[in-house]
Structures are given as structure tokens and as C-alpha cells.
Amino acid sequence: MSASDEEIHELVRQEAGDCLQRMEANLLTLESGDGGVGEIEAILRDAHSVKGSSAMIGWGEAANLASSIEDRMEAAREQGGLPPDSVGPLLHAVDALGQALDGEPKRETVAKSPPPDAPTIRVPAAKVDRMLDVVGETVLYHRRLEHALGTVSGGGASEELDMGEQLLDELQDSVIQMRTLPLSTITAAFPRAVRDLASQEGKEVELAIDGAETQLDRVILDGISEAIVHLLRNAVAHGIEEAGEREAAGKPAAGRVELRAGRRGRMVAIQVADDGRGVSPELLERADEEGSLVEILAETGFSTAERVTDVAGRGVGLDAVKRHVEGLGGGLELRSEAGRGTEVTLLLPITLALMKVLLFERGGHPFGLPMASVGRVVAVAGTTSLGNRPSLELDGEVVPLSDLGRLIEAAGEPLPRNPPAIVIESLGRRAAVACDELLGEEEVVIKSLGAILAGMPGYLGAAILGDGRIALVLDPSFLLSKAATAATTMDRPAETEEHAAGRVLVVDDQFAARELQRSILEAAGYRVDVARDGREALRRVGEIVELDLVLTDVQMPEMDGFELLEAIRADEEHGSLPVVIVTSLGDEASRKRGAEAGADAYVVKEEFDQQTLLETIERLAGR
Amino acid sequence: MSGVQVRVRVGREHYALPVTRVLEVAELGDLTPVPGSPPEIVGVHNLRGRVIPVLALATLLDLSDEEPERIVVVELDERCAGLAVDAVVDVGELPEASERVDSPYLTAAALADGLLVGMLDVDAILSSVSPEAPA
């Protein structure tokens, strides 16, 4: 067994890359004055090792460059130190060495810089992705097997099947984890970038990095480095003041920029914070009035620095960062205090492999949209038209309405009467797209459409559903811009007559279920309020005047539907409010509990039928 | 240029490609169309968890009367696709491909059992298809 030349080259390049990162870090430490002989010797060792491995495979240029760095460091060791002004030229030499090593095309690999003591294997990323495909498919087959066996046998087999499912889940989790890498794989270049930029700006800035061990999907890491560098540039160029201004404000002359990373629930938060001038009080005031500071800065490409530099303005490029992060299913937050500093937070999913999507159908085929981009779902009943284009009125705002089929130029039947429409929101832009039917909310594995279709606009990828069908996952920003420019986006949907119906509170912790019920009821003319659990619902019951009916799910966090029902019945003022229970619990005991607690009607989700539900509600809420 | 060839039928015509280029043959099954993709891409197929585009040989070769039921999976570097064919006829050696053809997707043609069999240029097919640039 022998490794190919290419494999050996790749190995040398990766090892040398680790050496270069350490050399750079040590040079920066020496420049700051904190370093000493220890750093000099470490650089010497790394230069020596790069020289050796480069020479061995005949890369003369790299070997010569490494050798010159080695010579310089040997001299420094004899002198017992390195003059600070010679750090600059040495950093350039390290750069040149990096370029010489990069002379050949690289292959993408997982695990670029392992912790020094743990044994590691390097695996091409495509192999891990293939593994994930197969594991995902095995899970589907297992479910089908479970279903098929469930109808013929019970007992012993089901335990074995449960165990199999647990093991498969574990397997899928570990494969997904193989796709993650620590943030430190991209942070190595940041101290240098900040140093170069600060000196270019004539400022003194120190960068502190915390939480570099935080794990993220490698695909996210690949794309996020540029965004972080952009935020660091913004902080140095526009956040941190000149030394004089800082001292006058009673701050230390050197500015401080912090890069922090850590888990926040199911997301990873990466923060870039500076102790600079912050945004102006006027802008903060405007943000208070108009909603969010990040939207204002991103939308207008606002710059807080009065002079124009060759570096990005505070807000310039922030829209690009925001779009990028949202495209990954994440979000952007920004806090600023005048005179005290600014903190930008990138919220990112830990893995791109798994994404929460809203699934729906158009023209007989399933599609998905990232939940992060879905504002709400409405039923299209009355439409207004603006400049001859159909639109919806939502919270007093006119939102363009399009047929999804028309937007992506898919062949398809006309839309049904009162179709559901998904309201997509991003960067203050909104558009509603109508489809045939909502399928629900699901966490899916996002797959590439393959190399041939990869460059195609409009899609983030595809997901394989439980029945083996492929759902195309749509790119929300593509739909938003299409909706804004397309000429005819929809045939006028059939309108229903309005009838004065009552006001209903829909309680469900599942977004899709809640919005589905809302859309059905709104289409029938009801005014609808929503709550996510029993506790919120109970509060809303007290607040809403003229509430006619409560439609509630049973299984919810905080306070479940039965508890909510009991609390309403125990309330003096609202004790007689009609309550309809909509649940997947169809068993006798649950029905009995519902009846005992005083439910007016009990609807089982599996038997869910729009017409019956509406009739029940009309009977109970009729005025 | 000989070797073992996979012979396929599209409409009333026969074509062949080297067996060494065929990853597998699968049922066409239900395809998911990808709106906005080039016309020769009829949809995407779920190949045991991997999503691959399916190319209509009939569209590429300007044929009619096709009733595709199978896909022949081929690959060039990272570019993997299924070629939609009506049926796989035979796997075996073919007479020397001596007839000249005038198609960018064929290298030559061979006369076998009184039929003209077009030799598919798999690389040309896979590199010719790409999504149109954004409008």
C-alpha cells in the first residue's frame, strides 16, 4: 500500500499550514512585547520542519523561504530577542511561504487542525456527505420496515425495532458531528488581519478571541470567515476611535475588539464586540422608533465614520452579511451604546445538514422553505391590487402576493379556492407566495442538487421526505426578488363572501398547525388570535375583549390544553367560554378527560376535516 | 476501440456506452421536476439518499416516441447524472464502430444485428449540461 504523490503533497501542505499558523501567532506575540526565547524557539522549530518536508518532496522555493526564516530566527536566538521592527518583514516572509506552498490546487478535507494530542484521521468531506446520505436513507427504510411489521406482528419485534431506531439516530448524529469543526480552524488569520488593518488606520487595537473551540458545520465555517473579517474591519475602522479621542473620553488608548463564540440553545452565537464610539444617539433613537438597528444599518448601507476610508463602512456590507447568515437559516443581531461600543451577533445553526423547513405542495410536488424565513401563513381570501398586481393587506401593510408556480416558472394547475399563502420575510422585505397545500414543519437533512445543478439560482438544495419523495428547498431571497420584479404573478383567486363571524383564539405549540388553523378560520371570516401554550393562552383570554371561542391543542409546554381548559372553567368571568380541543390523542381516556374538564367539542387531528371543524365552531361561536 | 458495452434503447433507436462508465442501472421511478432547469434535465431522482439529476437522452439526441423507464447512472469527476432510457437491451461486445456520425454527443456508430448503434460520448454529455446563468 502506498500513498499517491498527491496525497503526500496534501499531507505536507496541511502540516505546513499548521506550522505557518503557529509561526504567525508567535510573531504577533513577539511584536506585542509579551514574547521571548520560547516563541523564538517555537518559530525556529516550525520553520525547520517546513524546510525539511518541503525539501523532501522537491519544493525548492518553499524550502528556501523556510530556510531564510530559520536563519533570521537563529540570529534572534543568539541575540536573545527579536527587534519589534523586524516582525513585519518576517510576517511577509511567512505569507510568501504560504503562497509557495499553495502553488498547487488543494482538496477539501475535514479536520484541518486537530488538537495536538488526539489521534486523528483526515477524510475527504465528500465521503462524510455520502455516509450521511446512506444513513438518512437507512433511517427511512427502517421506518418503512417498522410500519410493515407493525401491521403483522406486535410484541418482541417492536422492541428490537425501537433499539434499531435509537442506534440509527445515534449513527446519524455522529455522522453529522463529523461534519463539524472548531471555529479555531478559521480564527488563526484574524489576529493578523486586525493587526494589519489597525496599523493601516494608525490605531492601536488588540483582539481577544474566546470560545474558538465552538463546533460548527464545515460548510458554514467556509462561508462565514469573510463575514467575520468584515465585522472585524468594521469594528477597527469605524468602531474604535483614534487614540486621542479615546483618551479624551477616558478610555485606554488601545482599542479592544473581542471575538466570542458559544452555544446559544440549538444555535451558535458568534459575537464581534468593540469598545469604540458606538452608533450616534440620533441613530439609536431612530432605531427605537422604526424597530431594529440592524435593519436600519443594513438597509441603508449606513456608515458611522464621518470620513470615507478604503475599508467597509459600518453598515456597508452588513446587508450582505445579514443575507448570508439568513440564507444559512440563522440571524443577525446588533446592539450599540453611544460612546461605549457596538456588539454584532451572528446566530448560526450548528449544522447545515439539518434545517427546519416548512413543507408544502404546489402542482403535485413538495417544496420546502427554511422556517427562519417564514413569517406566517395566511389564507388568501380578499386581495387588493396595487398597480394591477395582486397583493394582501397584512397588519396595515401591502404585501405582494404571487403564485409560487408562476414565480419559479413551474407548470401546474390553477390554485385552489382560498389557497394558503406563506409570508416570506427578510431584511424588512415581505412577499406572500400561494401554494396548494401546507404539509407541515419538519427538520430535514439538506442535500446538494449535485454538481450539474449546483449553480442554479432559486434553490438551497433538496430534502428527502419520509415517503421517498424529493422536496426542493427554495431560496427565500430568490423568491423575494422574483416577487418584487415579476410582471404577472398570479391569477386572481376566487373570493369568498365575508360573513360577520366571531373571534377565535388558536392555541398550539406547533407553528404549522397553528398557522394552518389560523388560515382556515381567517378564510371563513373569523378574526383569529394565536398563543403558543396554555399559559400564554390564559393571559390572552383575559386580554381579548369579545372572544368567542378557544381552539386548543393538548400536548404543549408550560401548560397543556387540559390544564388550560380547567383554568378557564374555574375562572368566574370566562368560565362559560366555548373551548374546542384539537388533538392527536384519540384514545378513550383522553376524550373522557376532555369531556370531564368541560370541553365543548373534541376534534382528533387524524380525523381533521375543515368543514366539520368550521361547522362545530360556527355552532359554538355563532352570535 | 472495443470492450464491453451497455446497449440501451431510446424510442426506436439503439445506443451504447462502455460498461466501465456505468455506475449502475436503476428504475426511473417518480422524478421531481426542477423548475427553471435546462430542458434536457427532466428532474431529480433519489438514488438511495443521493439526489442526482436525470438527463433525457431523447431531448439531447432529438428523438421521439420515447417511454423512459430506466436510468443509467454515469459520472465524470463530481458530475453525476442518470441518463433516462427506455430499456437496457444487452451488455456485451459490439462490432467495431466504423460509421461516422454527426452529433456532439456521439463518437461513432457501429453496425450490429442490422441496426445502427450510436456510441454515446458520456463526457461530452455530462459537460454540456449546465444551469443557465441567473436572468
Blueprint of the fold:
The complex is a heterodimer of chains A (623) and B (135).
Chain A: H1 5-32, H2 37-56, H3 60-79, H4 87-101, H5 125-152, H6 156-178, E1 180-182, H7 184-187, H8 190-201, E2 205-210, E3 215-217, H9 218-239, H10 243-248, E4 255-264, E5 267-274, H11 281-290, H12 293-300, H13 318-327, E6 331-337, E7 341-349, E8 354-362, E9 365-370, E10 374-379, E11 384-386, E12 389-394, E13 397-403, H14 404-407, E14 420-426, E15 429-434, E16 437-445, E17 459-464, E18 470-474, H15 476-485, E19 503-507, H16 511-523, E20 527-531, H17 534-543, E21 549-552, H18 561-570, E22 579-583, H19 588-597, E23 601-604, H20 610-621
Parallel strand pairs in A: 2-4, 9-18, 13-15, 19-20, 19-21, 21-22, 22-23
Antiparallel strand pairs in A: 1-3, 4-5, 5-7, 6-7, 8-9, 8-16, 10-14, 11-12, 12-13, 14-15, 17-18
Chain B: E1 4-10, E2 13-18, E3 22-27, E4 41-47, E5 50-56, H1 57-60, E6 70-76, E7 79-85, E8 87-93, E9 106-112, E10 115-120, H2 122-128
Parallel strand pairs in B: 2-10, 5-7
Antiparallel strand pairs in B: 1-2, 1-8, 3-6, 4-5, 6-7, 9-10
Detailed description of the structure:
The complex is a heterodimer of chains A (623) and B (135). Residues 104-114, 302-314 and 493-499 of chain A have low confidence and may be disordered. In chain A, a hairpin with a 2-residue loop joins strand 11 and strand 12 (389-394). The N and C termini of chain A lie far apart (84 Å). Chain A has 623 residues and is of the alpha/beta class. In chain A, the strands form 5 sheets. In chain A, strands 10-14-15-13-12-11 form a 6-stranded mixed sheet. In chain A, strands 2-4-5-7-6 form a 5-stranded mixed sheet. In chain A, strands 16-8-9-18-17 form a 5-stranded mixed sheet. Chain B has 135 residues and is mostly beta strands. Chain B has one domain (4-129): CheA-289, Domain 4 (OB fold (Dihydrolipoamide Acetyltransferase, E2P), Beta Barrel), CATH 2.40.50. Chain B has 2 helices and 10 strands. In chain B, a hairpin with a 2-residue loop joins strand 6 (70-76) and strand 7. The chains are: A alpha/beta (623), B mainly beta (135). The A-B interface holds A 126, 130, 133-137, 140, 365-366, 405, 408-411, 447-453, 455-459, 461-462, 464, 468-472 and B 30, 32-37, 41, 44-46, 48-53, 77-81, 126, 129-131, 134.
